[in-house]
Specification:
The complex is a heterotrimer of chains A (464), B (148) and C (421).
Chain A lengths: L3 H38 L5 H7 L6 E2 L5 E3 L15 H4 L2 E2 L3 E2 L1 H5 L1 H4 L4 H4 L15 E4 L3 H11 L4 E7 L5 E7 L11 H6 L8 H4 L9 H10 L8 E4 L2 E5 L2 E4 L7 E4 H6 L3 H22 L25 H8 L9 H12 L3 E3 L4 E5 L5 E4 L4 E4 L3 H17 L13 E9 L2 E13 L2 E9 L5 H4 L1 H10 L3
Parallel strand pairs in A: 1-5
Antiparallel strand pairs in A: 1-2, 3-4, 5-13, 6-7, 6-18, 8-11, 9-10, 12-15, 13-14, 16-17, 17-18
Helix pairs in contact in A: 7-17, 10-12, 10-15, 12-13
Chain B lengths: L1 H46 L6 E7 L8 E4 L2 E5 L6 E2 L10 E6 L2 E6 L6 E3 L2 E2 L3 E4 L4 E4 L2 E6 L1
Chain C lengths: L1 H16 L3 H8 L1 H24 L5 H20 L4 H20 L1 H6 L4 H18 L1 E3 L2 E7 L2 E3 L1 H19 L1 H5 L3 E3 L2 E3 L2 H20 L3 H19 L2 H21 L1 H11 L10 H13 L22 H34 L3 H25 L17 H16 L4 H11 L1
Antiparallel strand pairs in C: 1-2, 2-3, 4-5
Helix pairs in contact in C: 1-4, 3-5, 4-5, 4-15, 5-17, 7-8, 7-10, 8-11, 8-16, 8-17, 10-11, 11-12, 11-16, 12-13, 14-15, 15-16, 16-17
The chains are: A alpha+beta (464), B alpha+beta (148), C mainly alpha (421).
């Protein structure tokens, strides 16, 4: 028709513009669908705080219904204060929130970004009061450990080995969550890092507590047999003029594997590690989940593992006794202990047992789930049995509790910050449950002397 | 208590109503536009054939051009430059000499400031001039007859 | 029309039930609210009847009213005090629209006076640079006693009139490649000069008035219309290169441009300072998700300037992705209607006018939506028909009037009349 060229050009421009506009529509959809979650949860997004102001925040309870936190966000009360702080975390209008206060913030305020994204219908589920969050924590245990460790620095984790439920998560020094906003600058600058949850973010050399893992690896890879005997002269030559020594200059003489574990013989375990070499060690650390981190309600720090492929002979032997460049969290050591207590299977650790609506209805329930298989049940049973011997006849006798079947392994980890860290990991049958635990007292000296009694206190607190 | 729940539910229903009516309007409008377009296409197809074509026939010029017919609907350019639709290689013809284009159902010739004038029926074209069928257009030595 | 009415009722009902500020506002100024609701509704209904009687296409008008109603709803939710003023502006806008359609012949006659249009256009754009007042960081307002006017809004109109008239007149010249330069072909300089002047103006505004949004819009229209008229890619290429050079230069010379650009690249480096607005806007859209929080149940008040530049973010929060996509679809359909009007008409100047008006509406929506979603650097500009503001409302309805009253070529008109009978 008339002016055909002009019309053609108009159409061309129109199409180009329409294409740009459609691209913008797609981009907008991307923001609303993909990025929406992180934008809504961004700590700088004050919407959650605005909702919190108008709502009665739900309480945080322990497994027996004891209140750990209650009241409005602006005047939150923490009856257990410092004892439960590593679990509850804190909430402040300027600081945001941490711990369970943060992770379960949506449930506690009865208003989650996910809920409001469902559209207007979510308003029908909105109540004047947030939901209560019931944890797997047992405050008896939490408090017993806290009291036993008072005045020291350190951490302890107690798990239900069969379910993965966290029974206690202690970290010292701690802070009072109700005044954290007021004391923020002092707390954040404190060189003892009270705000750090050592149970999941503290990284320590495991020392001798790694030996059950080395033992399991050696037996399964046929680097040694059950009845093989080793000769301990008090020192192990690892080449290049270096040697590994026993603590306190002990000489164990002729030992089999069982006694090597009971007496925590460095020479034997250094030898085992060197037999397996970097490749064998890499495989066993992988098997026992040291490459994994717990996420979600328990957000753990990544373990520091050496580059197994590049280990020298001496460094390999160091790993065998839990020294060198290996750094782990107390939580992961508790998981290691739980593997032997639970037929070689490790359950995913969880903290939130139930989310209960104001009316009493449970809307979420924490459920046990298997995380990874660390070893086979025969191997687990054997190591567990020998770990019992450690407690009954070996280095861990201070953890003996009558009728609790305590198994354990002590550790005394050399470190750069001063006196040795005292470790004790293990398991017990108490209150009808199979528990696994890991305890570390920073610069506490011997594990058998300092850490084992704390395990005993924890186990006794669970007895009726 | 029940009163407040009913009001809240009413609020929720109305909020969905907002989304619903947003959607209904957009859907309705799109449908109307689409049927409109279909109808127009049909009527265009019915009415377009044979309309709006014009022809220039070379009645005088060199052998190469003589007798050739140039049909066009929109516009056509005349000049010595090879990018023109009708190329007349003649020293009296400018590079871009003249164009004929359609405007409002009429064809118009425009002289593009050529050195030698463009003539229609012997008259010099100053700027633009309307064309009617049968007009003789002289560009340089060539003469073209305009027809529709 | 029925759906628009139901939309308004549902929305105002939801807001009233929601017991927010709108609830108390309505209870306070009952008579005023109802009076203006009735006035606006009757003006719209009368305009619709008028269009049908005179056999104009009323779809574009309905779409514009739809967008305005969405705007009214959002404003009553965001700033209840502006509810009545915005209704008043809507009524005035619709009246301006009807007047435009009535006096279309006189309006189109203006196309003859291309140079006067050009000079007027430049004068209007220069006004704020000389007499302007700075509001919200942009020196693009003129305060005349109680009224604040944004001359750039009316400058847009003059610009498309000038371009339509100038380009259709010189279309043949511009599309004839005469001068070669760097592999590209251009028309003689005297034909290019007025275009260059307009492009220069756009860049000047970019630099001097700090009105980045309007500059981008003006520039876009000028480039789009020049291409429509000439079909020459050379002009477009030169324009884009010139614009980029200007952009790079102003990035290095002017702090405010640099700040805008850096915010766009990385808003998270200073989320509570310079990037506060865009970050809040993204939070709002993110918190809305697909379904939105529901009208009246979000927190769009956290975004500054939410009733003007950021109204789209509020829509995203409370009506969700659904609302945003539906509204953007309407802009596309409205644009398409305008382009169809351009394709139907016989006169090239009319075609360019209709196309230019359509381009303005879509481009403006694009620039601000892209700005608040961080697709492009943020520039302050209103969302057509939706944002609060008189200048914007009146201009948009004027543009709509132009699109509606573009004459159809005779053959098709006959056909349409037959169908209407």
């Amino acid at each position: 028709m008339e002016n055909r060229k002009l019309k053609k050009n108009i159409l061309a421009v129109a199409v180009v513009m329409a294409v740009f506009f459609v691209a913008l529509m797609l981009y907008t959809s991307y923001i609303s669908v993909i990025e929406a979650g992180s934008l809504a949860k961004n700590p700088l997004n004050h919407r959650q705080a605005a909702y919190d102001e108008n709502i009665m925040r739900g309480s945080i309870l322990d497994a027996h219904g004891n209140v750990l936190a209650e009241g409005k966000a602006s005047a939150r009360k923490y009856p257990y204060g410092k004892v439960a702080a590593p679990v509850t975390g804190y909430i402040g209008s300027k600081l945001g929130a941490s711990g369970v206060e943060n992770y379960a913030g949506g449930d506690l305020s009865g208003h989650s970004p996910e809920l409001s994204m469902l559209g207007p219908i979510s308003q029908l589920f909105q109540s004047e009061r947030g939901a209560d969050v019931k944890l797997t924590i047992d405050m008896r245990v939490q408090k017993a450990i806290y009291d036993a460790m008072k005045g020291r620095k350190g951490s302890a984790v107690v798990l239900d080995a069969r379910t993965g439920a966290v029974i206690a998560m202690v970290s010292l020094p701690s802070y009072d969550p109700s005044s954290v906003e007021k004391n923020w600058s002092q707390l954040s600058n404190d060189k003892d890092s009270p705000l750090l949850n050592r149970a999941i973010s503290g990284l320590y050399p495991p020392g001798s507590t790694i030996k059950p893992l080395i033992l399991d690896a050696a037996l399964r890879s046929n680097a040694a047999t059950q009845n093989e005997t080793f000769k301990c002269t008090g020192a192990l030559d690892v080449g290049d003029g270096h040697s590994i020594r026993e603590s306190h200059g002990a000489v164990h003489g002729k030992v089999d594997l069982r006694h090597a574990l009971m007496e925590s013989c460095n020479v034997t375990f250094g030898t085992l590690a060197m037999r397996m070499e970097g490749k064998g060690l890499s495989e066993v650390f992988d098997r026992f989940g040291f490459g994994r981190v717990a996420e979600g309600e328990i957000s753990e720090s990544t373990q520091r593992l050496p580059d197994f492929a590049k280990l020298s002979k001496g460094e390999t032997a160091q790993i065998g006794i839990g020294q060198g460049s290996l750094l782990v969290t107390p939580l992961h050591m508790a998981l290691l202990a739980s593997a032997f207590a639970n037929d070689g299977k490790v359950m995913k650790p969880y903290l939130i047992d139930e989310v209960i609506f104001p009316g009493g209805a449970t809307i979420k329930k924490g459920s046990p789930s298997e995380w990874y298989t660390a070893t086979d049940s025969a191997s687990a049973a054997l190591v567990e049995k020998w770990m019992r011997d450690v407690v009954t006849n070996g280095t861990g006798t201070r953890a003996i509790v009558k009728g609790a079947n305590v198994a354990g392994k002590t550790g005394t980890a050399e470190n750069s910050s001063g006196e040795d860290h005292a470790w004790f990991i293990g398991s017990a049958d108490v209150d009808g449950r199979r528990i696994a635990f890991a305890i570390i007292v920073e610069n506490g000296g011997g594990g058998g002397r300092m850490a084992a009694p704390i395990a005993k206190a924890a186990i006794e607190s669970m007895m009726h | 208590m029940t009163g407040s729940i009913i009001i809240r539910a009413l609020g929720v229903v109305l909020q969905y109503g907002v989304l619903l009516f947003l959607f209904l309007f957009v859907a309705g409008t799109s449908k109307k536009l689409f049927t409109d377009m279909k109808r127009e296409k049909k009527s265009l197809a019915a009415s377009e054939t044979g309309i709006g074509e014009a022809v220039l026939e070379v009645v005088k010029g060199d052998d190469e051009l003589l007798g050739r017919r140039f049909a066009f609907t929109d516009e056509i350019s005349i000049g010595r430059g090879t990018e023109n639709d009708i190329v007349i290689s003649d020293n009296f013809v400018s590079h871009h000499h003249a164009v004929i284009f359609r405007t409002g159902g009429q064809f118009v010739i425009e002289d593009l400031g050529s050195v030698n004038p463009t003539l229609v029926n012997g008259q010099t074209v100053h700027g633009r001039r309307m064309l009617k069928p049968g007009d003789m257009i002289q560009v340089g030595m060539a003469v073209l007859k305009f027809a529709r | 029309m029925r759906n628009i009415f139901l939309l308004l009722v549902a929305a105002l009902g939801a807001l009233f039930v929601g017991n927010g500020t709108f609830h108390s506002f309505v209870l306070q100024k009952e008579t005023q609210v109802f009076l203006w609701l009735i006035i606006a509704a009757s003006v719209i209904a009368a305009a619709d009847i008028f269009l049908r009687r005179k056999h104009f296409r009323d779809l574009p008008f309905q779409m514009a009213v739809f967008l305005s109603v969405v705007g009214i709803i959002m404003i009553s939710r965001l700033k209840a005090a502006l509810f009545v003023p915005q209704l008043r502006w809507l009524a005035i806008g619709v009246c301006v629209f009807v007047l435009t359609v009535c006096f279309r012949k006189k309006l189109f006659r203006m196309l003859r006076y291309q140079y006067i249009l050009g000079i007027l256009c430049i004068i209007v754009l220069m006004l704020p640079l000389i007499f302007g007042t700075e509001i919200g960081g942009s020196r693009n307002w003129i305060v005349l006693g109680p009224i604040e006017v944004q001359p750039s809004e009316f400058g847009k109109l003059l610009l498309i009139f000038f371009l339509a008239s100038y380009l259709s007149e010189h279309r043949q010249m511009l599309s004839l490649p005469n001068n070669k330069f760097l592999m590209m072909r251009f028309a003689p300089i005297r034909f290019m000069a007025p275009l260059l002047a307009i492009w220069g103006m756009a860049i000047l505004m970019f630099v001097a008035a700090r009105d980045l949004g309007s500059a981008l819009l003006f520039f876009g229209i000028a480039v789009a219309m020049t291409y429509m008229a000439s079909g020459s890619k050379s002009y477009t290429a030169v324009a884009v290169i010139a614009f980029m050079l200007a952009a790079v230069l102003s990035y290095h010379l002017f702090g405010h441009v640099r700040v805008r650009f850096d915010i766009w690249l990385n808003p998270w480096s200073d989320p509570s300072g310079e990037a506060y607005q865009i970050v809040q806007s993204l939070f709002a859209i993110g918190s809305g998700g697909i379904w939105g929080t529901g009208l009246g149940h979000g927190q769009p008040g956290l975004i500054p300037e939410v009733h003007t530049d950021f109204i789209f973010s509020a829509i995203g929060e409370e009506l969700g992705l659904l609302g945003m996509i539906l509204i953007m679809t309407i802009y596309l359909l409205l644009f398409w209607c305008g382009i169809k009007a351009a394709l139907r008409t016989a006169e090239s100047s009319h075609a360019l006018l209709a196309a230019g008006a359509s381009v303005i509406l879509l481009l403006q929506a694009f620039i601000i939506i892209a700005g608040v979603t961080k697709f492009l650097p943020l520039t302050g500009i209103t969302l057509p028909f939706v944002s609060y503001g008189g200048s914007s409302m009146v201009t948009c309805y004027l543009l709509l009037g132009i699109i509606t009253s573009i004459p159809e070529s005779s053959i098709k008109k006959r056909h349409n009349l037959k169908q209407n009978d």
